[in-house]
Amino acid sequence: MSELAILSQAMIRERKDIILSILGGFVAGIAGVVLFSASGYLISQTVFAPPLYTLIVLTSLVKLLGLIRAVSRYGERLYSHRATFSMLSRLRTSFFAKLIPLTPGVLSNRRSGDLLARIVGDVESLQHYFLRVAYPPIIVVMVFLTTMLATASFSFWMACLLLLGMLGTVLVVPGIVLLGYRNINGHVRKQRALLSTEVTEVLYGFRELKVYGQLAKREQQLRQASAALAAEQQRAAGQLLRGQSMHAFVTYLISWGVLALGAYLISDGTLAGVYLAMLVMASLTVFDEASAMATLPAYKQDSEHAAKRLTEAVLTPTMQPVKPSRTLNTDHAVSIELSGVSFQYEGEWRPALKNFSLQIPPGFKTAIVGPSGSGKSTLIELLLKLRTPTAGDLRLNGISVQELEESSIWKTANVVLQQSHFFRGTIRDNLVMDGEDHSDGDLLDILAKVQLPTTSLTDPVYEKGENLSDGEKQRLALARAMLRNGKLWLLDEPTSSLDYVTEQRVLTHLYEQASEDTLLLICHRLNGLEGMDRIVVVEQGRVIESGSYSELMEQKGYFYKMKQVELQLIGETGD
């Protein structure tokens, strides 16, 4: 599929405005040629002192053509820009619709600054595709051919000269510009993406860079990236200026050729002298319509590169091959079944999950424990359909996750991830995110259950929760999940930053609310797991132990050893 196929499809949807803009541009172009030709003819006629009515007709025609040209040009600008902005809107919507299901995979594969550059800069660059790539050749050919046919009625050789000029401006000049611009194809966009990436990382990591004394070094890298971008932009601007200069040269060369050829034809008696000024003005005017051809290759290369980068961002192996068509029942507890599930991150040498099998009946409380990097968090991302298994089958309520609509899974899931995002606003804004109406009393009650009774709903929250401690972030995330009515709880280290006393109090309220729901808890701490229906021990993406708390303790296997180490550490801390 061509990189510009998405643009072609968007143009087809806006075909009405595109046709109207082409019609307006053609009328404006022809009106301009006829306007200046009539002006030249009027000037020539005044030498011969024609009747007054002839001058009145010519003068009125010039004024009428001026009005037609202005109105047509306005219509052409109106419809062409409306079509362009509508296409950009569709492209943004389409791009985001394809990008959202790929998260968080696309975020882990690409730097956030580069992705931001694609979302903003590359989409904006596509606005030039219709206005400066697809549209100009159509108008130039239509206006030139019409002008040449009209010119041929006065002189065949004059029409041939205009044809030669059209070939020069439509093919030769753009070809030369393309050869020169090909060497810097995409360099400006790449440097802009690099600068955006560096700026984003400096802003996000400012404190760490400051503390470790690396801020000056990163500032120097920013200056170098900015200088490189300016240099590439200067090179690109030079190529555009070169094309415009060559177009002006061809324009005046053909106009001088028309003047010389006209003088010869007049002396030869095959052309009336009164038409010479008209033909010269026509040649000058018709080339104005072709001025956009000089910069067409640059915008074409830029648009193709931008479309390619957007396509690369969404056409990844993590795209869903099956179109979801079923929804998950949200009224009852959910059963979970994994059969031989494997998953490997792109570029990783080992799989995060390998032949992972697990069955969780509805209403079961299951804990997943194991060392860091054993694939526990990946399991939740697969259940939420944020990633796609590379092998195996994953089912909710007996339905393959691939067949389920993401929205139905998210609606029934109360999720707390290791890193929860908080938006700039207030505590209330960050609690009420499910679109449901919650009274202040309900919100304050939830805050009390997560051990934040003194927190006000109007307290400010900075971007990414910068003014909150890790423990406060976790408790707010738990409160946000407890406000939902889902029947599936997916909790990934929800209390790792809390002290033991606060943790037990919070989990007591959570377990009470989820008493009849399916709950999957990922944790490193092993205290409080006595009440779990099942504990699954995972290592290197495999299930190595499974059973109740008492069963695993009796086996004295991996879980037992982990528990003994934890008890020893707690004892040392207590001492």
UniProtKB/TrEMBL annotation:
Keywords: ATP-binding, Membrane, Nucleotide-binding, Transmembrane, Transmembrane helix. PROSITE patterns: ABC_TM1F, ABC_TRANSPORTER_2. One of its GO terms (biological process) is glutathione transmembrane transport. It comes from the Bacteria. PANTHER family: ATP-BINDING CASSETTE SUB-FAMILY B (PTHR24221), TRANSPORT ATP-BINDING PROTEIN CYDC (PTHR24221:SF653). The keyword Metal-binding does not apply. It comes from Cohnella terricola. Residues 336-565 form the ABC transporter domain. GO terms for molecular function: ABC-type transporter activity; ATP binding; ATP hydrolysis activity; ATPase-coupled lipid transmembrane transporter activity. The keyword Lipid biosynthesis does not apply. The chain crosses the membrane at residues 18-40, 52-72, 129-150, 156-181, 249-266. One of its GO terms (cellular component) is plasma membrane. This is Thiol reductant ABC exporter subunit CydC. Residues 19-296 form the ABC transmembrane type-1 domain. It is found in: Cell membrane. It is a multi-pass membrane protein. SMART domains: AAA.
